[in-house]
């Protein structure tokens, strides 16, 4: 039942702590192969850290070229992670058929809308994957990416998500009516103040 929180779901089996082995530690095992142990590959920027004076006495220091340097890769958010692109569209005419119009916008750009497809997809994840409210989505975009965004723009993005998922929704509606469905789950989300539902059938 979607109206009942998971913590009070009567079908949820309580965890049996007594069955856990004594001394068993959660998480990955010691010396397991890590995801970032060997770094991230080719770096975008190499920053040499030179030293001129001794941090203890302040005297001049010399680098020992025999000892290999220590390398550490660090992933960090850049100061300006957003690239502002200005598309300048000329007006064209066709003398053959009389057609005239501005050059089209590239794929992923909507006419008159100031946010691209990749940024819009991040907003989609923040809303439906991260379960953030529109106010929190607005704060996230402004704080992390350093650009202003209104809740009206967020509403347009979420409406486009709904429209883009409509063909897939119709396919699922046909699929769940077929025999063999064993499990159906649902979750709600709000667009323009109207509650919609997403169903998952397996």
UniProtKB/TrEMBL annotation:
Residues 15-27 have a biased composition (Basic residues). It comes from the Bacteria. Residues 114-201 form the Transposase IS66 central domain. Residues 1-44 are annotated as: Disordered. Coiled coil: none annotated. This is Transposase. It comes from Crocosphaera watsonii WH 8501. The lineage of its organism: Bacteria, Bacillati, Cyanobacteriota, Cyanophyceae, Oscillatoriophycideae.
């Amino acid at each position: 039942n979607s109206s009942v929180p998971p913590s009070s779901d009567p079908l949820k089996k309580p965890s049996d702590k007594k069955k856990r082995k004594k001394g068993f530690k959660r998480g990955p095992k010691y010396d397991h192969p890590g995801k970032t142990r060997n770094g991230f590959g080719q770096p975008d920027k190499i920053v040499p850290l030179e030293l001129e004076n001794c941090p203890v006495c302040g005297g001049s220091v010399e680098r020992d070229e025999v000892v290999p340097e220590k390398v550490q890769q660090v992933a960090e958010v850049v100061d300006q992670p957003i690239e502002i692109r200005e598309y300048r569209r000329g007006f064209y005419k066709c003398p053959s058929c009389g057609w005239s119009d501005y050059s089209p916008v590239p794929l992923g750009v909507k006419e008159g809308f100031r946010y691209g497809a990749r940024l819009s997809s991040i907003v989609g994840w923040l809303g439906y994957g991260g379960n953030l409210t529109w106010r929190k989505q607005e704060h996230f975009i402004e704080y992390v990416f350093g650009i202003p965004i209104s809740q009206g723009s967020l509403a347009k993005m979420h409406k486009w998500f709904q429209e883009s998922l409509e063909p897939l929704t119709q396919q699922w509606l046909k699929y769940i009516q077929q025999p063999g469905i064993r499990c159906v789950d649902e979750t709600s989300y709000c667009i323009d103040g109207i509650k919609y539902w997403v169903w998952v059938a397996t």
